């Protein structure tokens, strides 16, 4: 029989350490001959990125031995940092950002020089012995780095690569045709982000590896194209949102043709290199994932009839995928299944989980299953989110008590919340918190028009949607309107701070490496996002007054709620000075505030002890603010003015 205890004080089998230690990140799947590869991010190894290979007999092998860490810092966010071809691994090592090569049975050896150069998005050219890739050149030491496409000698290249395409601010996805005679790639320029406007380029490749006749064949400042990919019979395909939705297209006879136009997203925001939402199983059949309403599905498309056939799986979220004859390899998750690497046999429908992202045994009695909600918001529109009610079979709340609500504002802001199992959400819901993960206007997954709701309105539309989402649940009677909390990281941290500064809905907040000063962000952030705010707020410095008006640091008069700030000391995306200034200002004002800064962490925490400490500190903070006793014994946190 359940014990009666206040919400927030329930004892959960999911401790912070268990929630974090049991999990690994899984991404960037691929085939190499009869082997299968993927990348693992391991918090227990300080976030080291490991390339795994599964042999045809099921044996597992770490391809990059410790301490090698397969992670690139191009665009700071990185992405796919490795390539395996014919048993040879090429990867970017995080510590020095050089490219390394590992031949079977051999030790890793660098193939690029010791220099301030970074590499990503590798493509092999076996006939010419080249690697095509994106290079980011920091050798000037000041100003913006130079991005270009380069060709490298795959055996070793002391020059650091020969530039084959330059002049644009950004490059991605070099893809060589099967006959080796054409190269396609993506480029874009300031002030656009790749999900706002990008171009698809095509050039002939000469025998010596130089490019000739480069021309733009799709995309513009008002059309986002991504993921060029050649079919086995040499036809170029790509994803474009020219219809208002990221759909699949084929380039044939000088024009682009939609394969299966739908009001659904076959693409995602290109925050990272290596995005792969479709792949060719054969010349006749491609496999793809597409999303609508925050959930995604797997499907096959006949490239002749253009018929789309759903492939039934138990998953609600499909990540990157790869395909080979009769097989589909993909990362996937569902509300009761953490992210896993899955292999589907297309003819038989047999599904095998090759690697699970968590060693936790998911008990539905302690697991809150996401409920998709749509709620009214400003301008007569609606927005979306996922609601997680408190769930713990061992406890019930006293009569008439309603749970505190933790509103989560995702980062980006051009990103999305999904309904997949996340131990970080279950940590809260199993303790008696209700959680609402909001897909505010500006989120991806709902078409271009939904993304554009945030144009010029960052700090307004996102805040309104988080506020309206919380009030919607209050009106329904699901949560306690006097105990509304908002939390978020990066751009979500900015939304959190704005909600506390400009609205009076929330009683408490948590900012993880959040932005308090938009003007400082515009001046100090890295190249990839240097002009992101031009679209979200306005051109800087012309719109300087608007930047100040939208910056919580300049509106402390509205910040009267308790706040906890968590920050990485080495963050170059949102420098720690942002959080330090906010902490000092609120401390001086007398507002209850706590600040934790983690050495060795960048934008987002990757080391197990730090992730655990951040989670426990946040729980402790809420317990002190709302006056309940945590069931867990956690290290106390210094809270100023409380």
Outline:
The protein is of the alpha+beta class. Helices cover 15% and strands 36% of the residues.
Biggest sheet, spatial arrangement of strands: 30-31-34-33-35-36-37-38
Largest sheet: 8 strands, mixed
**Low-confidence stretches at least 5 residues in length (pLDDT < 50)?**
none
Mean pLDDT: 96
N-to-C CA distance? 37 Å
Radius of gyration using CA atoms only: 24 Å
Instruction: Count the E strands.
Output: 38
Shape, per Cα inertia axes: globular
Structural class: alpha+beta
Number of helices: 10
Roughly how much helix do the residues carry, as a percent range? 10-25%
- Strand-residue proportion: 35-45%
Please provide a written account of the structure.
The protein is α+β, with helices and mostly antiparallel strands and 642 residues long. It has ten helices and 38 strands. Strands 30-31-34-33-35-36-37-38 form an eight-stranded mixed β-sheet, with helices on both faces. A four-stranded antiparallel β-sheet has the order 2-3-4-5, with no helix packed on it. The protein has a four-stranded antiparallel β-sheet with strand order 6-7-8-9, with no helix packed on it. A hairpin with a 2-residue loop joins strand 26 and strand 27 (327-334). Helix 4 crosses helix 5 (491-502). The radius of gyration is 24 Å and the shape is globular. The model has no long low-confidence stretch (mean pLDDT 96).
Task: Name some characteristics of this structure.
642 residues; alpha+beta; 8-stranded mixed beta sheet; 4-stranded antiparallel beta sheet; globular
Give the helix/strand layout.
Elements: E1 3-4, H1 16-21, E2 25-32, E3 35-42, E4 48-54, E5 60-62, E6 82-85, E7 88-92, E8 99-102, E9 109-110, E10 117-125, E11 130-137, E12 146-153, E13 162-165, E14 170-176, E15 182-188, E16 198-205, E17 211-220, E18 225-230, E19 236-240, E20 247-252, E21 255-258, E22 278-280, E23 285-292, E24 295-302, E25 308-311, E26 317-324, E27 327-334, E28 337-345, E29 351-356, E30 371-376, E31 382-388, E32 395-396, E33 405-409, H2 423-429, E34 434-439, H3 448-451, H4 461-476, E35 484-489, H5 491-502, E36 508-512, H6 518-524, H7 532-536, H8 544-549, E37 563-568, H9 577-589, E38 593-598, H10 608-626
Parallel strand pairs: 1-32, 33-34, 33-35, 35-36, 36-37, 37-38
Antiparallel strand pairs: 2-3, 3-4, 4-5, 6-7, 7-8, 8-9, 10-11, 11-12, 12-13, 14-15, 15-16, 16-17, 18-19, 19-20, 20-21, 22-23, 23-24, 24-25, 26-27, 27-28, 28-29, 30-31, 31-34
């Amino acid at each position: 029989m359940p014990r009666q205890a206040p919400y927030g004080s329930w004892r959960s089998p999911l401790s912070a350490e268990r929630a974090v230690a049991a999990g690994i990140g899984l991404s960037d799947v691929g085939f190499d001959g009869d082997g299968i590869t993927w990348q693992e991010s391991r918090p227990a190894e300080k976030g080291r990125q490991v390339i795994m290979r599964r042999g045809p007999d099921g044996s597992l092998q770490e391809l990059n031995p410790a301490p090698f860490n397969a992670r690139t810092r191009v665009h700071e966010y990185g992405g796919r940092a490795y390539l395996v071809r014919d048993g040879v691994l090429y990867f970017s090592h995080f510590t020095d950002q050089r490219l390394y090569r590992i031949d079977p049975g051999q030790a890793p050896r660098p193939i690029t020089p010791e220099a301030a150069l970074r590499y990503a998005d590798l493509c092999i050219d076996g006939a010419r012995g080249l690697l095509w890739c994106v290079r980011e050149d920091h050798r000037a030491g000041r100003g913006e780095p130079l991005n270009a496409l380069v060709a490298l000698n795959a055996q070793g290249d002391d020059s650091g690569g020969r530039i084959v395409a330059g002049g644009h601010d950004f490059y991605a996805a070099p893809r060589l045709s099967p006959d080796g005679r054409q190269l396609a790639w993506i480029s874009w320029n300031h002030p656009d982000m790749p999900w706002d406007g990008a171009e698809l380029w095509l050039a002939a490749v000469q025998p010596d590896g130089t490019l000739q006749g480069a021309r733009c064949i799709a995309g513009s400042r008002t059309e986002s194209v991504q993921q060029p990919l050649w079919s086995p019979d040499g036809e170029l395909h790509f994803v474009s949102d020219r219809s208002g939705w990221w759909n699949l297209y084929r380039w044939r006879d000088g024009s682009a043709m939609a394969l299966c136009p739908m009001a659904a997203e076959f693409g995602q925001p290109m925050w990272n290199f290596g995005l792969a939402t479709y792949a060719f199983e054969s010349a006749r059949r491609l496999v793809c994932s597409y999303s609508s309403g925050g959930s995604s599905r797997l499907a096959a498309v006949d490239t002749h009839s253009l018929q789309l056939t759903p492939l039934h799986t138990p998953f609600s979220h499909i990540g990157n995928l790869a395909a080979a004859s009769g097989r589909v390899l993909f990362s996937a998750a569902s509300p009761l299944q953490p992210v896993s690497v899955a292999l589907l046999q297309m003819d038989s429908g047999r599904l095998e989980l090759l690697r699970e992202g968590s060693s936790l045994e998911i008990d539905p009695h302690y697991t809150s299953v996401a409920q998709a909600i749509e709620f009214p918001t400003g301008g007569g529109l609606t927005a979306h989110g996922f609601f997680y009610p408190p769930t713990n079979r061992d406890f019930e709340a006293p009569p008439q008590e309603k749970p505190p609500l933790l509103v989560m504002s995702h980062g980006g802001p051009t990103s999305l919340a999904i309904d997949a199992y996340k131990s970080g959400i279950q940590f809260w819901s199993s303790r008696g918190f209700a959680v609402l993960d909001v897909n505010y206007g500006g989120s991806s997954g709902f078409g271009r028009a939904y993304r554009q709701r945030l144009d010029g309105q960052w700090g307004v539309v996102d805040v309104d949607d988080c506020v309206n989402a919380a009030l919607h649940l209050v009106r329904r009677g699901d949560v306690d309107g006097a105990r509304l909390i908002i939390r978020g990281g990066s751009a979500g941290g900015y939304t959190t701070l704005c909600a506390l500064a400009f609205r009076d809905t929330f009683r408490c907040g948590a900012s993880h490496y959040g932005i308090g000063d938009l003007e400082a962000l515009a001046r100090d952030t890295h190249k990839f996002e240097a002009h992101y705010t031009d679209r979200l707020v306005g051109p800087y410095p012309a719109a300087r007054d608007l930047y100040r008006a939208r910056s919580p640091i300049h509106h402390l008069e509205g910040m009267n709620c308790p706040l906890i700030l968590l920050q990485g000391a080495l963050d170059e995306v949102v420098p720690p000075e942002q959080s330090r200034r906010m902490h000092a200002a609120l401390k001086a004002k007398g507002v209850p505030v706590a600040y934790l800064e983690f050495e060795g962490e960048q934008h987002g925490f990757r080391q197990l002890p730090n992730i655990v400490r951040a989670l426990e500190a946040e729980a402790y903070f809420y317990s002190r603010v709302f006056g309940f006793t945590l069931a867990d014994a956690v290290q106390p946190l210094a809270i100023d003015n409380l």
